[in-house]
Task: inverse folding
């Protein structure tokens, strides 16, 4: 445990740079477990089983997975075919988050430019590290831009508490540092703004209740957990000033795939004239997609994630079955929030409307 | 257990008519426990702790609570003051469901018209039984009227599966027989329509996953549990033909207080042009209220209902703590669905729009 607490990041390389270390996010907040990932198979499993989760972190984990592939080539030389196969395995671990594909392809491309095997290995590690540092810097900038929105609400409310609402965990645990949705929150907190965060528990895996609440508590940010379906009620009663969520994939027209339940929160925000912002690094854009509803593949996961709930019982992590054993369930992991419901996107290059025109204004090279 | 299974109703009088028996709905579906209610205090606790829940059932339980009060008068005669105090205790057990107040006041009024103590006791029992039978008949009629809506969808879909979605449990467990939201579903099922029901798990107490799924399974109705926040996604994908929910209190203008999360389901239905119906007996109308958002008191319950989740672990009913022990939560039990989001109300007198004019057309005497 002591080892883990030394690291404020959810992923890092061991001292011998041969093992990827990750916080097992399934065990939080009740237990702090660090897992070793030594092979591509380990990485695929960690992503699939949500030992790691969150679009930016999945991207960095995938990138380090390519690096592990270069370390563990079964042949004497690192064949391109072998590498490409390993990358395809990595990319298929989770279908919705676009960062995974983006990061894996970026490292692969970098390696393919090298001839020498040793150079390939170093190139992979360096590129993965670059991606990680870039995501940290992106999140820091998202915090700076998003802070201005919160500060504007503070001014309008004459320094009364600013109430934010977030869904799932788009905190540093989902990223590397700062988080995406939480970056403006942490920035506002550090600048002394009186903020309070409503944390959707985020069924089925309760990332809000388990991870976001834990993160916010560690930082000392006031917060309250509510059931996901209470977000609408809070807004009806004027208890929310602004919503900030993360994203798993965003079309160039501004449609956002994010954790299941984001869409109803956006509907409620719209119905109550509350600003609804999505915070995302540019790695979360999918520049090939125009229509989120038609074109983004939504992952369907094991129904037991709904039927069984994990938590603490007499100091032991365990799970309980909620419905009758034979009751069937279906587990859709994401939904699509159409651009028309989104007030704006907070990116590392600034804030834009969720429209093709305004997104391209910030990213003219795409 | 054998005793319990003899009864298809969630409440009944013991053979000696001195004890009210109820199914303890907190234990379902994993255990079938019958509780004895012998005093007003027992009834208040059973309602508060949700041993019984659901607007019509709470009403009947309250009515039988008044009967128990007449049985257990501490004085030699049943004083009016004593009765009124007992009724006030009963009515305050849960603030949102209007049926409780309605049923308790109705039995009280009936008793106050009697002089003789023995007659008071019989009058109370008879009036409570009358209310129960009337609710059964109301639910049967709601089923008949609501069936026509489902049958119309079946016709339009050329006999393809009709997909319904419901939130919480407005089944026979919440009523006496048939249920409110489930009455049209059972009617359609019995007439051979191919139906499938999406069951919102309904956090925090999971009445959908625990009770509705269990009820539907017992009847053989096809169903699938989803997390509450997936209702929007299902609608985005065209997987829902109609929503039916129950109600805890309805204004004469058609605003509906119902289990937390009903409002976001209604928003999603509106956004996807899916009919959203509320099934309710007339006892659920509050004829004194015009504006649901301003005038309906919303109960706030123990946050531990969110933080701890109950279920089965190694054949034992137990609970797990999901967030960190020190994480705060807030537990709002209901929300308000504004009339503008409701396609229609299904009552025992027929279907009407959620408007004052159309509601008064069905209930001209109010």
Result:
């Amino acid at each position: 445990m002591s080892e883990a607490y030394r690291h404020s990041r959810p992923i890092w390389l061991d001292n011998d740079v041969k093992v990827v270390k990750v916080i097992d996010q399934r065990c939080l907040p009740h237990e702090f477990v660090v897992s070793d990932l030594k092979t591509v198979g380990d990485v695929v499993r960690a992503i699939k089983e949500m030992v790691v989760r969150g679009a930016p972190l999945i991207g960095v984990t995938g990138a380090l997975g390519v690096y592990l592939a270069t370390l563990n080539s079964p042949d004497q030389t690192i064949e391109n075919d072998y590498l490409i196969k390993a990358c395809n395995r990595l990319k298929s671990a989770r279908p919705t988050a676009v960062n995974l594909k983006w990061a894996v392809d970026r490292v692969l491309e970098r390696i393919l430019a090298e001839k020498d095997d040793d150079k390939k290995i170093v190139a992979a590690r360096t590129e993965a590290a670059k991606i990680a540092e870039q995501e940290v810097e992106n999140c820091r900038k998202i915090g700076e831009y998003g802070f201005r929105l919160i500060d504007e609400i503070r001014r309008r409310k004459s320094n009364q508490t600013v109430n934010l609402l977030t869904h799932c965990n788009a905190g540093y645990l989902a990223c590397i540092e700062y988080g995406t949705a939480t970056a403006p929150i942490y920035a506002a907190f550090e600048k002394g703004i009186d903020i309070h965060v409503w944390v959707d528990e985020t069924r089925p895996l309760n990332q809000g209740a388990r991870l976001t609440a834990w993160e916010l508590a560690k930082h000392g940010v006031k917060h309250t957990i509510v059931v996901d379906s209470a977000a609408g009620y809070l807004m009806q009663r004027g208890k929310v000033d602004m919503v900030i969520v993360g994203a798993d994939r965003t079309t160039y027209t501004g449609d956002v795939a994010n954790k299941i339940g984001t869409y109803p929160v956006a509907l409620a925000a719209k119905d109550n004239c509350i600003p609804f912002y999505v915070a995302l690094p540019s790695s979360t854009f999918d520049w090939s997609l125009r229509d989120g509803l038609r074109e983004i593949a939504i992952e369907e996961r094991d129904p037991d994630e709904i039927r069984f709930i994990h938590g603490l019982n007499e100091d032991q992590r365990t799970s309980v079955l909620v419905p009758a054993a034979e009751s069937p369930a279906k587990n859709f992991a994401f939904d699509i929030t159409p651009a028309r419901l989104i007030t704006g996107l907070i990116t590392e290059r600034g804030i834009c409307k969720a429209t093709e025109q305004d997104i391209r204004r910030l990213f003219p090279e795409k």
Remarks:
- Chain A has 13 helices and 18 strands.
- The mean pLDDT of chain A is 96.
- The radius of gyration of chain A is 20 Å.
- Residues 141-362 of chain A form a domain with the Rossmann fold fold (CATH 3.40.50.10470).
